[in-house]
Hints:
eight-stranded mixed β-sheet; de novo design (two linked rop proteins); alpha/beta; Rossmann fold
Amino acid sequence: xxxxxxxxxxxxxxxxxxxxxxxxxxxxxxxxxxxxxxxxxxxxxxxxxxxxxxxxxxxxxxxxxxxxxxxxxxxxxxxxxxxxxxxxxxxxxxxxxxxxxxxxxxxxxxxxxxxxxxxxxxxxxxxxxxxxxxxxxxxxxxxxxxxxxxxxxxxxxxxxxxxxxxxxxxxxxxxxxxxxxxxxxxxxxxxxxxxxxxxxxxxxxxxxxxxxxxxxxxxxxxxxxxxxxxxxxxxxxxxxxxxxxxxxxxxxxxxxxxxxxxxxxxxxxxxxxxxxxxxxxxxxxxxxxxxxxxxxxxxxxxxxxxxxxxxxxxxxxxxxxxxxxxxxxxxxxxxxxxxxxxxxxxxxxxxxxxxxxxxxxxxxxxxxxxxxxxxxxxxxxxxxxxxxxxxxxxxxx
Length: 397
């Protein structure tokens, strides 16, 4: 990590190891939603402290905890205790997903990803009867014809057609996370949520080999078409949201798909992805544990793993991921929520994006330590960021 911060062990769980600490924080951040247990995380992390030099330690320890819970989930299911099984499946799936994070792309990673998604899906569908597993038609790729998603139906409303938020993930997150930390709050406010894995994200990347694209309206438009066609959605009140890397995606979608009522960037990405990733590569070369991102993940989402010069090829592709010539097309209401101590994405990106957005109704909120949620994409306290942007949405409905 870079820059001076006031972060304690909640954020820097393993001092000096930014790679693992960031991943642990993302996992801990799911605790308020019942998707993980802090005691189980603590058990894993105490074992990992002594194994930081071992290349397989990360996925062995997280995988072992996941397998233990997976077995208990199956036993509860067999006994007819579906709700308890759902809890076990959900936590097992989240730990499998955490384990998979640092496995190099290949058969082992694919299988770990498959198991993670299967367990998470079983857990979510058992625990939340207002969630549907759906497929969004996708025509922008000749091999993949749909995008996997969860649709969480609104609660606490008598409206036949409810407002709806389409949520795109970050670079290393998944719909199984966002349907909980965003969808649960939105449902409580009477809104639907479509949590979707677009190109380069979650299941679309892991099981369908659909890689990242700069022209994300290719996913944003069919997502709108899908929700607008549902009888329980108000097509005039659909917002698009993205968090972390999804901040770029939501901005791009809002710029080119004008039917969205508004756009939300929960972290301002990317003004200049090429420059950002070039700096990350430089830092990784100096200290592989000094950044929140693995050395291979960006090459993977850019479909450059088999390229002998994959790191440079991925950087070249990154030049297309820029909002410099795009943000001026954003005319709908738009909000950027960024963290004051974001050591992943420079705070300057938030100001640049805000200044360039053409909307007359635009808002920039910088969350600091007193606010809470002052780490990247509010991974240290998701609720703070979600509440803030949800209040903003509420004021525009």
